[in-house]
Amino acid sequence: EPEVTQTPSHQVTQMGQEVILRCVPISNHLYFYWYRQILGQKVEFLVSFYNNEISEKSEIFDDQFSVERPDGSNFTLKIRSTKLEDSAMYFCASSDSSRTDTQYFGPGTRLTVL
Amino acid sequence: GESVGLHLPTLSVQEGDNSIINCAYSNSASDYFIWYKQESGKGPQFIIDIRSNMDKRQGQRVTVLLNKTVKHLSLQIAATQPGDSAVYFCAENLPSYGKLTFGQGTILTVHP
Questions:
Q1: Who contacts A71 (Cβ-Cβ below 8 Å, separation ≥6)?
Q2: CA-CA distances (angstroms) from residue A113 to A83, A88, A99, A109?
Q3: Which among A48, A105, A106 has the least Cβ separation from residue B98?
Q4: Number of domains chain A is built from
Q5: B-chain residues within 8 Å CB-CB of A108?
Q6: Which residues of B touch A6 (CB under 8 A)?
Q7: Are B75 and A32 in contact (CB under 8 A)?
Q8: I need a surface site. Which of A11, A22, A86, B26 has the fewest CB within 10 A?
Q9: CATH class of the region B10-111
């Protein structure tokens, strides 16, 4: 069964450093998303991406964040200058063109900012 | 129901019992709802979905009920198994929007 994959599973970084979280969505999917989950809290939407541009973003997704689809398979989330409060699980999700709201999630990357 | 902060609602059941997990959603304009299961250290796993033009949908061992009048969603799990132990989240979606809004989650613990 096709699935969303994410790397790395755990990223530790120093405050102020840049990090790139990587995702490989399901191969025939066209819509991509990033969500985050702070420990013990609910999953929060960050950004949606379609046709090489951002469709929608939340207030969390400020100028420190960016997304990119550098090739035909990867989808990345970059945090330019990490803050302590960026520590969270980051989930990538994807959906196909026929069911844009049925989103399938990857296993997540745990980001720890020290 | 839902709770705020870090204290999630919990449900403990015996193996073989039926479980009912509830969720109050926030936006009356939402037209699509999904239940996700999240095991420790893993991403949300799709369980079942329902559109607003339905009030009940059944899957394998799971049933979702939607009450739009009171903005309430429930997930029923028949013959609950230890492998069902996880956090369960409901999520809602507005028409034409790709973002899901998640509830706080309920911790389900199934005792053998």
A1: none
A2: 7, 9, 35, 13
A3: A48
A4: 1
A5: 41-43
A6: 43
A7: no
A8: B26
A9: mainly beta
The residue range of the domain holding A75 is: 5-97
Tens of pLDDT along chain B (112 residues) come to: 343 345 688 999 999 999 999 999 988 989 899 999 999 888 999 999 999 999 999 999 999 999 999 999 999 999 999 999 999 999 998 776 678 999 989 999 999 8
Could you tell me if residue A102 is inside a domain?
no
Please name the member of B49, B97, B102 whose beta carbon is closest to the beta carbon of A42. Answer: B102
Q: Report the CATH number at residue A16.
A: 2.60.40.10
Residue A88 falls within a domain, yes or no? yes
CA-closest candidate to residue B47, choices A104, A49, A110, A13 = A104
Terminal alpha carbon distance of chain A: 37
Domain boundaries, chain B: 10-111
